[in-house]
Design brief:
Layout: E1 2-6, E2 17-22, H1 29-37, E3 51-55, E4 63-68, H2 77-93, E5 98-102, H3 111-126, H4 137-143, E6 160-164, H5 170-191, H6 199-212, E7 216-220, H7 222-228, H8 231-237, E8 245-251, E9 259-270, H9 290-304, E10 310-320, E11 332-334, E12 340-342, H10 350-363, E13 368-373, H11 378-383, E14 388-392, H12 395-408, E15 412-414, H13 419-423, E16 432-433, H14 443-452, E17 460-464, E18 470-471, E19 481-482, H15 487-503
Parallel strand pairs: 1-6, 2-4, 2-5, 5-6, 9-10, 9-13, 12-16, 13-17, 14-15
Antiparallel strand pairs: 3-4, 7-8, 8-10, 11-12, 14-17, 18-19
Helix pairs in contact: 2-3, 3-5, 5-9, 8-10, 9-15, 10-14, 12-15
This protein binds ligand BES, manganese (II) ion and zinc ion (ZN).
The site of manganese (II) ion has 4 residues, from loops.
Length: 504
Amino acid sequence: MKATFEKKGFGGVEAGLLAIPCMRGRVPEKAVSLLKELGAEKDFDGSRGKSLILHTPREKYARVLLIGMGREKNVKIEDFRAAGGKTYSNASLLSAERCAVWMDEKTEIALGDAAQAFVEGFFLKSLRLDIYRSKKKDEEKKEASEEPSEDDDEDAQVKELIVLCEEDLSRNVKEGYILAEAQNYARLLDQEPANIMTPQRMADEALMLAKKYGMDCRVYTSGELEKEGMWGLLAVGRGSAQSPVFVRMGYNEGKGFPQIALVGKAVTFDSGGVCIKPSKGMVAMKYDKSGALVLMGVMRALAELKVPVCANLYFGAVENMPDGNATKPGDVVKAFNGKTIEIVDTDAEGRVCLADAVSYAASKKPELIIDVATLTGAVSIILGRYGAGVMGTDEKAIELMLKCGEHTHERLWPLPLWDEYFDMIKSEIADVKNLGSDRGEAGTITAAMFIKEFTDGVPWMHLDIASVDHIESPTAYFRRGPSGKHVRSLTEFVRAWVQEKAKK
Ligand code: BES
Ligand code: MN
Ligand code: ZN
């Protein structure tokens, strides 16, 4: 599939489906006359959430999808993502190979932002996450002779989205496409089950990504991890038949650009280890690698967009399993930076892996470390599934991140790291323990507080994405499955962050 831009107006190209987002009370003249011609004037007024498909007598645009966006003053950028998703669903149901959208509305929102969001929603919705199904729902339904629904689209029918506008929006269309595809890349890998996406396979994917974009990449296996002193990562991996690996990837190294370190949690499956999780909901623990994959998506986007930054990605890929050889509650291990950890709960494994990866990143002295992790169930207790938690020691970075989260609708909310929380992770026998309160009090914060101990004074920001890693109820532009959330917000953050640096 591809996205193209044409500096043309309504009906400027031939398409199987022409979509037109319309404001309430401001339906474009061309659409109104089409409605009149078909005697459907009363059926559409641009009300929010209402849409209408018109079968027209025109050859160039036989089917027109009018999408109600609601009142002009209430329209948000996010509404254009929803419109894009809706358009994809309709194009797919109608088997429209070429789908066009005419961007004409004049609102508070810049046309470029609206077009970019539309493209994002369109391509995010297009990703199929049922690659292991040999029989698609479509065929089953046909047999049962039911009406198809929007999830029944067969693969690859929709081949192209053409954005039409009298104003040049080619850059926005291109960027929307790059960002959505980077996010889809993360989602597709995240969808893979743990028997396929093993720690070694994570490393192989990183090597392939690096090769494709001319980035540097190194993989460290067990023996080297011992030599480096990554005993946290090794401790988490001890109970698994799959050995842990550590991956380092670099974009634009040695070119004098501002240096940023990205650190991801890459637990390919989290059974909880000896402190085993209840079986209900354990399937979702294949998504415990989301953090690293989201950051691989960010690396890809940075390379595609040629962002002038030096970005290094680090992650320790590992499987957390119970076994005779597994780490036990009470065990003590030493992390890369020499700090000792008392492992009180083997299910708080993410922070133990991050201890090594974050302190390794810190040893390279970047200007900022960002870690992204499906770290705590507690973050969804705080925020539900509508946002991720953000914490850290770099207030400016957090402020900027909040803005990027808002703009991309990958929302975040800040949590405090007051000194008192550190008291909760003090250990009697080691430097820190990997569990705060055993009643779960401030679980998201104490987890972050633990990671802070391994940042060694480098400015740092932490995203706990456990609340948004996968979608349970489909939305206008997300199907069920991994969300790839924070690929777009983080890419936008890095771009804005380098721009700020350049000003100084
Ligand atoms: N991977 C989980 C966190 C998680 C939970 C992600 C639910 C997505 C959905 C993490 O390793 C974990 O098990 N955290 C524990 C921490 C506790 C033992 C302190 C949790 O949240 O229960
Ligand atoms: Mn866990
Ligand atoms: Zn985990």
